[in-house]
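Reminder: ligand-aware prediction takes two inputs, not one.
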Amino acid sequence: MNYRHAFHAGNAADCVKHAILLWLLQAMARKAKPFCVLDTHAGIGRYDLHADAALRTGEAARGILRLLDYTPEALRPYVDLVRSLGLYPGSPAIISAMLRPGDRAIACELHPDDHAILRRNFGRDPRMAVHLRDGYEAIGAFLPPPERRALILIDPPYEATDEFARLEAALRHASARFAAGVVAAWYPIKHRAPVRAFHDALRNGRLRDVVAAEFFLREPVDAARLNGCGLVVVNPPFRFEAEIPPILSALLDRLGDREPGEGTALIRLADE
Ligand SMILES: C[S@@+](CC[C@H](N)C(=O)[O-])C[C@H]1O[C@@H](n2cnc3c(N)ncnc32)[C@H](O)[C@@H]1O
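Here is what comes back for the chain with S-adenosylmethionine:
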């Protein structure tokens, strides 16, 4: 496990993921009934963008710092939340900020050092359960939730060469355990072939109601670069397909460098 999110926190791909995550959490909170969030690959939860790791890559300068500098209207809820939380919020911080008194979350992190920091950051919040645990295995352990309402975020580091296949299996597993769950899974877009194969697998599988929101900084033809990213969502909440495209466009407007092939897409991979 070499991946440490502290080097990448606040980059463009993180902003895409977190802006959509916030929209999903707000959608979950539209109903009064309590919900549970399972964050399978949680990281440490909060990041100091002035720390050595972040400064070494400078990725946040081309991500969240541009949004803080000038905030398009569609991104105001996300950027206001980032501002209000102080340190740059990872997924557990965004989730914990959005939980209502009856809601709860489970955050899993497998790297022992990152888990220790995650526990230090959130262990005192009674609504947040922090586990040193394999996030894929947690899907079987924690689903279905007693609340019968859940958002599951799957955000692996893609160090393993078979991560797309593991992700697809995890989506099927989550759906088999809890068909009503809203499942969001992040993926990198470097070149087209693995993403096309992933989409095909989801199109031809037994999952119902699947959409993908995609964001391209440039043509995805260089396998060595993160050229974009996507979030596949199973059981997207009402109005996802109407309200996510303006968020993606606003992200691209601020984070894109007008390179050939930049763009956004909302793709339906399986009908309801
Ligand atoms: C992309 S980062 C997560 C970022 C976080 N979701 C966020 O948005 O702030 C992926 C994290 O997964 C952890 N990890 C890797 N393999 C794991 C596994 N099998 N189960 C749980 N965590 C894992 C890594 O240590 C890393 O902290």
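Residues 3 and 159 are 7 Å apart (CA to CA). The first strand starts at residue 36 and ends at 39. We will return to this case in the review session.
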